[in-house]
Every structure is written in C-alpha cells, then in structure tokens.
Amino acid sequence: MKVLVVGSGAREHAIATAFLNSKSVSEVTVAPGNPGMIKSGIKVEAISESDHNALIEFVKNNNYDFAFIGPEVPLIEGIVDDFKSHGLLAFGPNKAAAQIEGSKDFAKQLMQRHNIPTASYRTFSELNPAEEYVKKHGAPIVIKADGLAAGKGVTVATSVDQALNALNEIFVDNRFGKAGAKVVIEEFLDGEEFSLMSFVSGTDFWVMPISQDHKRAHDGDTGPNTGGMGAYSPVPQISEDVVKQAISQIVRPTVEALSSEGMPFTGVLYAGLINTAQGAKVIEFNARFGDPETEVVLPRLTSDFGEAIFNILTGKKPTFTWAKNGVTLGVVLASKGYPGKLVTGTPLPQISLNSSDQHVYYSGVKLDENNNLVTSSGRVALLQVNGKDVKDAQSKAYSILDNIDFSNMFYRHDIASKALKALQS
C-alpha cells in the first residue's frame, strides 16, 4: 500500500516510521513534513495540511490507498469529510466528531449528558461573570480556552490572582483569538495523570499501552504549560485496575455517546486522564494521536500498522499487538524561551544514536543556506529510546543528550522520574 501522512511534526515523523516498518506498506509520503524527516530518509511533499484540495489531488494522482491525518486543525476543519466526498479514505474523525477536541465546552457537555467522570465546570463567554466565579470558588482552579490553543490554552492557577490574569489574557489581551471566545473553568483535580489512546471505529475500539506526558517546561513540573516536554510508556504506577476502570467508565461510554448522538468516531481518540481518589477522570479529549505520547507508544507496536489502519477504514477487524516488556522513553528538545518568546535559527548538533531501536523524530526545524538543520519553532525534536526498565531507559536517553552542547535549546532532565520514584517506594 501507499500511504499519505498529513502533518509536519515529530508525531507525524513517528507515524510515518510506523508505516514504513509495516510489511503491507511500500511507500509513505508526509505532507508538508519537515527537512528533518528528509534527512532520516522519509519522503515529503510541500503541501499545506490546510490545503485539502491539493492533498486530495496528490492521493488521486499518485494512487495512494489512504491518508492518515496527524494534526487536529485539519480534522476540525473537515478534511476527512472532504476526502470522503471524493471517494477517498482518510483515517481520522469527521468534522462533527472532531468537536470533542475542537470545543472543550462541547466535550464537557457530552460527558455531563452521559455521566462520564470529569471535573465539575462552568463555561463563560464574558470576563466579569468568569472573574466572579473564580473569586467565589478560590484556588487552585483550572482556566481553559474553549478552542484550540496548541497545548498552551490551559492555566492551572494556584492563586486567585493567577486565575484572574489568565482570564484577562484570554478575554482582554485576546491571546488565543477565536479559541478564547469562551472559557471553561474547572475544579482542580489532584492525582497522577496518564494518557490512554485508542483506535476507534464507531463503537468498537482497541486501546493502546498507556503513557505519561510531561506538560510543564522545566524539571520538577515547574514553569509554564507546554505542548509536552517528554513522555514514557508504560506507566508502572498506574495499576491495571485503574486502566480497566478508565476503559469501562470513560472510553466505552464516550465512543458510544458520540455514536448515539449521530457522530460516530473513526480515528484515534486520546483521553487525557487523572487518577484521583475517586478513580480515573477526564482532563481532556483529543481527536488524534497525542504529541509526544505517539513517539513512545507507536514504537511499542509489534504488529503491522498499515494493515490494521486499512482494515479499520474498510470495515474489517484490525489486529494490534504490543511489546510486553521494557520501557520506551522520549525527551523533547525545545528552543530557548519555549513556550514564550523563542530563540530560533540555532544549528542542530549531531545526535549520535547507539542502536537501531533509538530514533530522533523531528518537528520545528528548517534548512539554512548551507543545507544544515536549524531550529524554527518551540519544540524542535524528540529523542526516543527503549530500555529494559525505567532506569535503563533514562540512563540511555540522558547519556546521549548530556554529552551534547545544545546552545539556545533546553530539555527536561527528569522524564519518567515519577515512575522511578514510585517503583523505589
């Protein structure tokens, strides 16, 4: 088969790699991709992910079997519907089902109607009543821009002043544009977070190994929220019982809810969860693979990725098998200043890998005048390694990174330390 992967980040680099590792797949192109993918031997085509017509023409003209949609924006803009109108297969939810990520208010209302465990909340479209609500409820409290904000629209406010500042950024400074037309204010939930992703076809679903993302910019979970600074899988401190409860009380009811309300979901449903004293609850849903979770979960796949996705798209039963042992860990390299004012244009040093099961997945890179990779946005790349356990995976990753001079870049030095601490206690 021939597969088009739509997107340009490290997530899409990992998806393309999984397809290339499939016996059923002979050719993969990523559009628009990035120069780092080319350096690692992946074909790219300079077509914007928002140019649905050009992507459709590419698939038609090159006899590609299907497209796999990586990022959220084209999904929310209806790219799957557009492919379907031309008789083409595209893996991802249609525009209606993608609302589960496109609007946090939509997702919260869906959960409320179907008794899916999540934080209590209120939605506001004006500053003054939102401020009054915060003052009445106090801190800690969570402020979320309703729409898409590239992982930066959430503030976990530890003080009332911080919450009020977040509301002012959204409503007054218009920091997130249309995404901030409404604000969801939630109760703060305490517990250990984890990500549970599933391949979905209507009311059928196939769960992936769980992972844990690190959202804060700096070590010790300090600094501002980011799109993710690293991840690892599996997560030993989250018990199998908690995962089973999340599947039965969250994943199954959600896919059944979308189907019963006339929006059956096909694609990857990402559930960002937190294990509270009352069990797992939903923090957020995404309508696609998480990033950086994809880069540590997909390398654990031991079955044919291309065949499974094609089977879902054509109404057949897929097979997914996963590595039972070991730990996969990923560390994000970010530009200095991320997620705020960035320092870009920095040359990327050579990252020397020690084995074939280690990868560098590229994201925010471009070529300079000498055809060398330089940084171009916040998250630059992710180093992925496999280890026999958490300590081994950490040791492998940091023995590579700590010996490189990353001028004007930074990374967290404690990815998976929560797991290590839990295992030692």
Q: What's the number of extended β-strand segments?
A: 23
Whole-number radius of gyration? 21 Å
Class by alpha and beta content:
alpha+beta
The stretches of 5 or more residues where confidence is low (pLDDT under 50) are none
Q: What fraction, in percent, of the residue positions are helical?
A: 25-40%
Total number of helices? 14
Instruction: Describe the largest sheet.
Output: 6 strands, antiparallel
Determine the strand fraction and express it as a percent band: 25-35%
Identify the overall geometry. Answer: globular
Beginning-to-end CA distance, first to last residue: 48 Å
In round numbers, the mean pLDDT is 95
Please explain how this structure is put together.
With 425 residues, the protein is an alpha+beta fold. It has 14 helices and 23 strands. Strands 12, 15, 18, 19, 22 and 23 form a 6-stranded antiparallel sheet that branches. A 5-stranded parallel sheet has the order 3-2-1-4-5. Helix 8 packs antiparallel against helix 9. The longest helix is centred in the middle third of the chain and has 21 residues. The protein is globular and about 60 Å long. The termini are far apart.
